[in-house]
UniProtKB/TrEMBL annotation:
Residue span(s) of domain ABC transmembrane type-1: 195-368
Major place of residence: membrane
Localisation: Cell membrane
GO biological process: transmembrane transport
Protein name, per record: Nitrate ABC transporter
Natural source organism: Mesorhizobium prunaredense
Amino acid sequence: MSGLLSLSSITPRSWQGYAALVLLAGALLLWPLVDAAPGYGVGTAALIFLLLLLAIEADNFPPAIGVVLLFLGAHGAAWLLLAGITGNEGTARASFYLLLAAAWLLAWRCVTVLSALRPASRWAATALRLIIPAIFGAWILIIWEAVTRGAGIPFILLPPPSAIGVRIANSLPVLAADVRQTIFKAVIFGYIVGSGAGFIAAIAADRVPFLRRGLLPIGNMVSALPIIGVAPIMVMWFGFDWQSKAAVVIIMTFFPMLVNTVAGLAASGHMERDLMRTYASSYWQTLFKLRLPAAAPFIFNALKINSTLALIGAIVAEFFGTPVVGMGFRISTEVGRMNIDMVWAEIAVAALAGSVFYGVVALFERAVTFWHPSVRGG
């Protein structure tokens, strides 16, 4: 294999390229990639090396062409490595991991080049903001897949992402029912009620000083209560259906909104408040025209924090009693049955739902607080 390719004519221009070239040389010296026969054929192995060498040379091309070569070379080589290790689980040798590391370094270089681009159009800038984290996330899955298959990690300890994806595709009706029960009932209701109640309580605490002095210390204490202690009590109070889970979500989302809104209402400057007084503005006029706009970043920070807390609270609460549906119920049940791929499928769906929820709140924040320096500078 070492006679198929020559590395002497390759001239990388980045440290990732130099490191990848060293890893390629090490892979050649430590050939073959797997212990099993037939393993990787000569043609497949040569194509992997050629793709990686092409990506290393990408810095010698214009940036637009170079980033395409980096993307195709790194991801094409990774795909061939994963395709070859399937059926040869647990037989990967050091050269396999060296080539995987080289592909990862070149993908890193691809992201670096993409981050340095300054597109002229707004659509191109939006596409870049989506592509860069997508590549980063894809490589988490690639490395996960390669290590679990290459090292032959037992399925019960950590299934590969491909097996989890197959389980998701084969369990869509079950997953959809769990999402409806957990998210569209407990999470949404609890999130709206908890965040809304926290906001109203913050306005009351700002208006009445003794409430502020009494509520905030209690809020700090209640926010430290463990979910596993609160959830069984809520189940006893409100029953096994989604209402008890919504109660847990309300408790978890109330105090972050309260604390952040109180802090945000104090964020407006003294000069602005004095100006409102010179205009003879009432408390409510000052609140709506000055203090709430100034507190908007704090309020949206609480909403974003609550978007993840709500999902966590609902899922954990379902561990302590629920109808035979729900994400937390499914996780606890399938762990007992040793269906680990189903457990990871639920975790993946929960992570996706939480990310979408957070993204919707973030987009709404950008639309509402477009005037804020943190948004204008983004």
